[in-house]
């Protein structure tokens, strides 16, 4: 009885936490009136009745630490700046980013989502072939991955590494980047056990939120310092503004600091 109460409390907490983490779902929407009743839904005929099975409640998420954990890489270690592109590979945008980098004769670091890598292996191969650095960015961009049980974190990172290595058999994947920058000491530790350093950033123009190219340029130019790691995106949405910004940022940063992929 007591354990059941604990379980119910845990489940309630999970629901509460996931609800808080999703800005798109407001309590009003969740509790809002349902549409006017029409014909009652007909039960779907099934060949065989489903076995009655209660799914076990998911383990509770660890709370997010209030500060970034130790062990994150946030600078290149020399004067050159590093460009990092997250959330690809994406068939529409990644080739255009690669074209720009090649034209400027610079290399970058690509933080790949596992299921995207599995879907577009030729793009992963091109990224590696053109001399860019590879970074694991989790299987499905799970913002809460760092809060999950260690075994789940490990399985996710291993699965992502495998998808990248299926595309590039001898790929070196020296970095992991936590989606949303929502790092925990646990995810840093698991990445380290798997041979990956945790890669954060020092300049974030928030290009994922679709500011104009002009705004992206201004934000990068005002925050960039020698050794900066710049966070940009080649996946996860319409990247036209990022591409337009890169047309100016790449030659400018190259001239002022040099651009190198992370080593
Ligand atoms: Zn991301």
Automatic annotation (TrEMBL):
Signal peptide: 1-30
GO molecular function: hydrolase activity, acting on carbon-nitrogen (but not peptide) bonds
InterPro entries, alphabetized: Glyco_hydro/deAcase_b/a-brl, NODB_dom, Polysacc_deacetylase_ArnD
One Gene Ontology term from the biological process aspect of the record: carbohydrate metabolic process
Every NodB homology domain range: 79-262
Region Disordered: start-end pairs: 24-76
Keyword Signal (UniProt): yes
Pfam families cross-referenced by the UniProt entry: Polysacc_deac_1
Compositionally biased tracts (Low complexity): 24-33
Chain intervals with Pro residues compositional bias: 34-58
Keywords: Signal
Gene3D superfamilies reported for this sequence: Glycoside hydrolase/deacetylase
Domain of life of the native organism: Bacteria
Classification via CDD domains: CE4_NodB_like_6s_7s
Alphabetized PANTHER family for the sequence: GLYCOSYL TRANSFERASE-RELATED
Protein name: Peptidoglycan/xylan/chitin deacetylase, PgdA/CDA1 family
Protein source organism: Micromonospora rhizosphaerae
Lineage: Bacteria, Bacillati, Actinomycetota, Actinomycetes, Micromonosporales
């Amino acid at each position: 009885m007591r354990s059941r109460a604990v379980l119910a409390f845990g489940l309630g907490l999970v629901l509460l936490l996931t609800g808080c983490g999703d800005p798109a779902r407001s309590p009003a929407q969740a509790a809002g009136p349902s549409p006017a009743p029409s014909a009652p839904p007909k039960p779907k005929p099934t060949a065989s009745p489903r076995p009655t099975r209660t799914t076990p409640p998911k383990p509770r998420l660890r709370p997010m630490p209030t500060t970034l954990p130790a062990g994150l890489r946030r600078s290149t270690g020399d004067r050159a700046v590093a460009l990092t592109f997250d959330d690809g590979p994406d068939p529409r945008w990644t080739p255009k980013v690669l074209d720009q980098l090649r034209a400027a004769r610079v290399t970058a670091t690509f933080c790949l989502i596992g299921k995207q890598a599995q879907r577009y292996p030729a793009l992963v191969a091109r990224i590696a072939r053109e001399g860019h650095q590879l970074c694991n960015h989790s299987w499905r961009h799970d913002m809460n991955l760092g809060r999950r049980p260690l075994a789940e974190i490990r399985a996710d990172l291993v699965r992502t590494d495998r998808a990248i290595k299926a595309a590039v058999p001898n790929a070196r994947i020296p970095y992991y980047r936590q989606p949303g920058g929502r790092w925990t000491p646990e995810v840093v530790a698991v990445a380290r056990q798997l041979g990956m350093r945790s890669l954060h950033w020092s300049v974030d123009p928030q290009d994922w939120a679709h500011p104009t190219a002009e705004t992206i340029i201004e934000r990068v130019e005002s925050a960039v310092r020698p050794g900066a790691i710049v966070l940009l995106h080649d996946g996860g949405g319409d990247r036209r503004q990022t591409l337009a910004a890169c047309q100016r940022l790449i030659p400018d940063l190259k001239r002022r600091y040099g651009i190198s992929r992370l080593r």
